[in-house]
Design the sequence.
């Protein structure tokens, strides 16, 4: 009888461990764009990963990273697919995309004239034979992948996405109420180390905007924070340690450390929303999904 009870106890313990909600963070950062020779300047985005990865691991997150030349369009897409397959009901998921951003002529067929894109390592700054737009990671693609993740984790799970790039507002294609009206950065040249994007619209005068057949869907994120508006500029920032970071990533770092290392998405969201404009001369683009 004691043996049966012991086996039953071990089985229940195993089941509890297997069903316990996970905490997972996917951090994507690209610094060495110039080695791809596709027109983009180098950034300091991998510094963001160096800053945040230890904090998330200490807070109990399983951290997955994609850095530099490993962060191609297909690699990021595949990692998001695998993350969706890995997640279960009740899981807590954080995603950071840190690098360049750019607007692109919208060929998707919804009601946007230009679509927001994150720039993977193998995406070109100008339309060319190496990239006719398919290497840009569009808000439409991101939205589909985030929907799959949110479906897996369900209402009891939490999904937070941070977009530390230029033109990142609406980067998950949400229509939920915007908490703050974003403003274009008023930083002057020389105030910050680098802009994280380019004002040129990819494919302008070359690509043809698709006929509008769809309306943009709501954000699948419980919490979404972008460094700027869809037309805005995101600047890098020199931290207290003298190193250069994305301003949004640095505020996430400050928010976590100010909370004794705890990663609570709601608390972190409110901290960044409140303090971003104190660090930069612009507001972040913040939105919350509907429960």
Sequence:
């Amino acid at each position: 009888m004691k043996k049966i009870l012991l086996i039953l106890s071990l089985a229940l313990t195993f089941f509890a461990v297997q069903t316990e909600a996970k905490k997972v963070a996917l951090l994507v950062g690209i610094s060495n764009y110039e080695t791809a020779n596709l027109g983009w300047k180098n950034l300091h985005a991998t510094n963001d990963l160096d800053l945040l990865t230890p904090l998330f691991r200490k807070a109990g997150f399983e951290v997955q990273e994609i850095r530099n030349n490993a962060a191609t369009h297909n690699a990021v897409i595949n990692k998001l697919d695998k993350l969706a397959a890995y997640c279960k009901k009740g899981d807590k998921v954080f995603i950071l995309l840190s690098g360049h951003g750019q607007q692109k002529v919208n060929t998707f067929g919804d009601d946007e004239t230009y679509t927001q894109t994150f720039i993977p390592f193998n995406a070109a700054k100008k339309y060319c034979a190496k990239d006719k737009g398919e290497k840009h990671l569009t808000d439409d693609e991101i939205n589909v992948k985030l929907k799959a993740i949110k479906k897996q984790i369900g209402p009891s799970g939490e999904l937070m996405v941070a977009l530390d790039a230029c033109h990142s507002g609406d980067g998950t294609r949400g229509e939920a109420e915007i908490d703050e009206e974003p403003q274009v950065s008023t930083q002057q040249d020389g105030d910050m180390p680098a802009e994280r994007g380019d004002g040129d619209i990819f494919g302008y005068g070359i690509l043809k905007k698709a006929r509008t057949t769809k309306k943009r869907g709501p954000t699948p994120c419980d919490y979404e924070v972008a460094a700027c508006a869809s037309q805005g500029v995101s600047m890098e920032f020199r931290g207290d340690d003298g190193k250069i970071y994305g301003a949004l990533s640095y505020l996430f770092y400050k928010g976590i450390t100010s909370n004794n290392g705890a990663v609570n998405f709601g608390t972190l969201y409110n901290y960044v929303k409140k303090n971003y404009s104190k660090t930069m001369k612009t507001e972040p683009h913040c939105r919350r999904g509907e429960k």
Residues 10-17, 171-192 have pLDDT under 50 and may be disordered. The chain has one domain: 22-288.
